[in-house]
Amino acid sequence: MDGLTIVVDDLAHRWPGRARNAVDGMDFTVAEGEVFGLLGPSGAGKTTTQQILTGLVHGWTGRVEVLGRPLGDWGPALYDRIGVSFELPVGWPRLTGREDLVHFAALHDRPARDLDELFARVGLADVADLPVGTWSRGMRTRLNLARAMLHRPDLLFLDEPTGGLDPVNVAAVRDLVRDARDEGATVVLTTHDMATADALCDRVAFVVDGRIVACDRPRTLRRAHGEATLEVEHRVDGRLATTTYRLPDPGPGLAEVLASGTVESVSTNEATLDRVFVDLTGRAL
Amino acid sequence: MTSTRAAALVRTELALQRRHGVVAATAAVTAAWAVVLLAVPTTVRPTLVGWILFLDVAAIGVFVVPAMTVVERGNGIPSALALTRLSPATAVAVRVAVVAVGSALAAVVVLSVPGPSRGGPVLVAVVLVSVLASLLGLVALGRQASLTTWMARLPLLAVPLLVPALVRGVGLWDAPVLALSPFTGGLDLLLGRWSWTAVAWILAWVVVLGALARRQADAVGDPSAGAAPRRSEARTRRATTTTGVRGTTWRRRAVASTLRVDRQTVLADGMVLAMLAGLPLLALAVRWLGGPGATWLATRHGLDVTPWMDLARTFVVVVHTPVMLGAVAGLAFCEDRDARVLPAVATTRASLVTLLAVRSGIVVTLATAAVAIGLPLSGGQHPLGIVGTLSTALVAGTCALVPMTVLAAVARDRVQGIALLKAITLPLYLPLAAGFVPPAWDAALLVVPTGWSVAAAWATSPGVLATATVAGIVACGAIGWLLGRRLVRTVVAPAGRHAAGRQSASRVATSWKRAP
Questions:
Q1: Do B503 and A112 touch (CB under 8 A)?
Q2: Of A48, A235, B92, B405, which sits with the fewest C-beta atoms within 10 Å of its C-beta?
Q3: Based on the domain organization, do A205 and A264 belong to the same domain?
Q4: Is residue A79 part of a domain?
Q5: A183: how many CB neighbours lie within 10 A of its CB?
Q6: Please, are residues A214 and A221 in contact by the beta-carbon 8 Å criterion?
Q7: Domain-embedded: residue B502
C-alpha cells in the first residue's frame, strides 16, 4: 500500500428535492492495493458515494481525488482506469453474455481480458452464448462483475457483488476479488454481506446517515465490539458445563480446566461484523 | 373477487399510474386542449371537441396500457401475479377500466368548454372508445416485452381500423362498409350522433379483443410459456472475433460496436424493420392518392382531394416520418434505461456521448434520406426544385432529434416514455395547421421545431427556404444538445425519484473537463 488511490475530504451531496444530504461530510482515504469496504444500512449513502467517485453524480461539494488526480480533472479517460459493478443486474436482454462483453470491451481504450477465461472465472462459461434475458439474477450479478473486470482496471468499485448468489458463487466472487487485489487493483466494496466484507476487506467504513461513524480493520472493530472473554465447554461429573474466563487475565482456573482432560470446546466472544454493524448503525441487517 | 380486494387492486393501479406520470401527463394534455378550445371560435368548438376526444383523450389507453404491461413483464410481475388468486384477465380488466375512467374525467374537462349540452352519451362513448383503444394496444403488444416491437406492430392493426373512421369523419367518403371498423361508430358517438348499433358493434369488438388480450396475459403469466429464443452459434462466433479487431482506433471500434449492438437489439425485431420499410410504402400511397386515387374519388364519389395533396404529402413524409424514426430511437433509450444499461455505458471510456452521437447520426441520416427519397416518391415537387427538396429533407431529418432526445432525457422508464411520446406527438404535428389557419398564424407555429420543416417544405422563395433550413437545424440541434447534456448529467438518480434537471447550480463544485 504505497500511495493513496482515493482521497475524500468533507464530501457532501443532496439529491434534488430531498430534505437532507445523502452524503454529509464524509472523509476517508483508500490506499493503493487496498480492499476497502463501505458498509451500512440501506439509504445510508454508500451507493451515492460510489456514484460520486465514479463520476456519475454531479453537484457534490468537497474534495475528491481518484488515482492521483482531482475527480473534476478526469475526463472519460478515468473509465479506462476504473471498473464499476452495479448493484442491480445490467444488460441488454436480447444480447448474449458474450455479445455484451464484446461490446463493452470495444467501449474501452484498453486491452480486454480473454472472454472465455473471464466467463470461466465468474462461472458463466455454460451460459455465455445464451441471451442475458434468460439468465437468473445471480448470473446477471456475475456478469456485472465480469464487465467491471473486463479491461483490467486499476480501481474496482463493486456494489453488492455477492447479492443473490449461492455460497459456492459467493466463494468464487471472493476469490475473484482477491485475484484482482493480487494483480495490483484497489477495490472499493459496497455490501450488506458482512461475512464477505470480513473475509476480503483490509479496512471497512461504516456509513450512517451519510457520515462515516467508524473506519478500521475488521478485526479491530470486532475486538472493540466484543467481550474479551473465553468460553470453555467441559464435562463436570459427566454433564456439559460452560465456564467463562475474562481476558487477558483468566486466573488459574483456566489452566486447571485445560489440564483436566474434560474440555469439549474453547471459543472467544469476539464480535462478528454483523454485531458491529448492529452496534454502530442501530439497525438490524 | 371480494370488494376489498377489488378496491386494493384499483388503489394499486391508480398509484402506479400516478407514479409513472400518466396522471400528470393526462392532466397537462387535457389542460392544453381546454386552452386550445377556449382560443378557437365558439362555432368550431362542438366539432373540435369530438375530434379531440377521439384522437387524444379516449386514445390514452392505446399507449399507457401496453407501456405499463411491458414494464411489468420486464420485472417479472406476471409470474408473481400468477401465484396469487388474481387472474391475469382481472388485472388487465382493472387497468383498462381505470384508464377508461381517467379518460372520462379528462373528457368532462374538455366537454365543459363548449358547454354542458353534450354530457352523458358522449362520456359513455369516451369509455367505450377508451376500452377499445386500450385492448387494441394490448393485442398489438402480443407476448412481447419490447416497446419498439409494439410501436412497429401498432400501426398494422390501428391504421386499417382508424382510416375508415377518419375518411368518413372528415367527409371524404361515406359508405356502409366503413362502419365495419368499430372506430367509425366510435367517432360518430363522440361527435354526438348516438347509435345503438354503433354501441353494440363496439362492444362486440371489445369482447373479441378482450379475449385475445386475456389469452396473451394468461400465456405471459405462465412460467412454462417458454424462454426467449436462443441466439445462433454463428452470431456468437462473429461477436467473439470482433474483440480482436486491430488496426482501428478504439473510438472507431466503440462506434462500430454501438452500431452492431443497436442492430442486434433495436433492429433485431422484424416488425421494426417492417415499419422502416413501410415508410416508402406510405409515400407511394400518397402518390397513388394524388394520381389514380384522386381520379377514382372524383369520378366515383365526386370528391376533389387535389387541394389537400400538399398537406397530405407534408404530413406523411416531412413530419410523420422523422417523428416516427426519432420516437423509435427515443424508446430504445427508454428500454436501455429500464435494462439499467445507461450507467454502465456512462462508466466506459466511450461514455454516453458516443451512444448519443451514434444514435443521433443514425436517426438524422435515416430521416433525411427518408424525406429526400419520400418527397419525390410521393409525387411531390418542391417549388424550388432539388435544392428545396434536399433542404427540406435536411431540416426535417434534424427534427428527428427532438422526439429522440425528449424521450431519452426526460422519461425515466418506458411508461413515461410512452406518456411523453403521446404528449409531444400532437404538438409536433401542429404546424400542419398552417394549411388551414390564416397566414398571420404561421409565425406562431414556428415555436414548434417541426414548424421549420413545414415552412421549408412550402417555401416558394430561396430566402424563406434558407431561413427555415438554417433556423430549423439550429433549433433542433440546440434542443438535441441540451437534452443530450441533461441525459448525460442525470443518468443516475436516487431511488424512487428522477433527478433530471433539478440540480442546483450553486452546489456544483466540479465540472468535467476533457482529459488533457
A1: no
A2: A235
A3: no
A4: yes
A5: 11
A6: yes
A7: no
What are the grid coordinates assigned to B512, written together?
A: 468535467
Q: Are B432 and B315 in contact (CB under 8 A)?
A: yes
Q: Do A108 and B257 make contact, defined as CB atoms within 8 angstroms?
A: no
Q: Which of residues 90-109 of A touch B (CB under 8 A)?
A: 90-96, 98-99, 102-109
B96 is in which domain, residue-wise? 3-223
Å between B413 CA and nearest CA of chain A = 15
The rounded distance, in Å, linking the Cα atoms of A62 and A25 is 8
Mean pLDDT throughout B319-346?
Answer: 91
Rounded CA separation A106/B254 (Å): 5
Q: What's the rounded Cα separation, in Å, for the pair B407 and B411?
A: 5
Tell me what the pLDDT averaged over chain B comes to.
82
Q: Which residues pair with A217 in a beta bridge?
A: none
Chain A residues within 8 A of B514 when measuring between CB atoms: 75-76
Distance between B320 CA and the closest CA of chain A, angstroms: 29
Count of domains forming chain A = 2
CA closest to A46 among chain B residues? B494
Is there a single domain that holds both residue A214 and residue A247? no
> Is residue B218 located within the same domain as residue B275?
no
Give the N- to C-terminal CA distance of chain B in Å, as an integer. 66
B194 falls within a domain: yes
Number of CB atoms found within 10 A of residue B100's CB: 22
How many domains are contained in chain B?
2
B205 to A151, B63, B348: CA distances (angstroms): 56, 19, 50
Distance between CA atoms of residues B338 and B411, nearest Å:
10
Model confidence over B152-171: pLDDT tens digits?
788 888 889 998 998 888 77
Q: Could you tell me if residue B503 is inside a domain?
A: no
Whether A88 and A200 map to the same domain: the answer is: yes
Kindly state whether B514 is in contact with chain A, defined as any CB-CB distance less than 8 angstroms. yes
The residues in A 119-158 lying below 8 A from B, measured between CB atoms, are 129-131, 133-134, 147
Write the burial class of residue B305 (CB in 10 Å: 0-12 exposed, 13-18 middle, 19+ buried): middle
Nearest to residue B507, comparing CAs of A195, A183, A16?
A: A16
| Phi–psi pair at A202, nearest 5 degrees | -75, -40
Residue A110 near chain B (CB below 8 Å): yes
Of A72, A130, A131, the CB nearest to B512: A72
Cell of B10: 384499483
The closest CB to that of A99, out of B239, B343, B511, belongs to: B239
Q: What cell does B484 get?
A: 443530450
- Which A-chain residues 37-76 have CB contacts (< 8 A) with chain B? 43, 48, 51, 54-62, 64, 70-76
Q: Check residue B508 and give its pLDDT.
A: 30
Residue pairs spanning A and B at CB distance below 8 A = 174
Q: What's the whole-number mean pLDDT along residues A49-63?
A: 92
**Does A279 reside within a domain?**
no
**A149 and A244 both lie in a single domain:** no
The shortest CB-CB distance from A77 to any of B268, B341, B349 is to: B349
The nearest alpha carbon in chain B to A76 belongs to B349
**pLDDT band with cut points at 50, 70 and 90 for residue B243:** very low
Query: Among candidates B101, B102, B135, which has minimal Cα distance to B22?
Result: B102
Print the domain residue range for A255.
Answer: 227-269
Using DSSP bridges, classify how beta strands A61-66 and A4-13 pair: parallel, antiparallel or unpaired: antiparallel
pLDDT (tens digit per residue) in B68-81: 888 787 766 776 66
Residue A277 resides in a domain = no
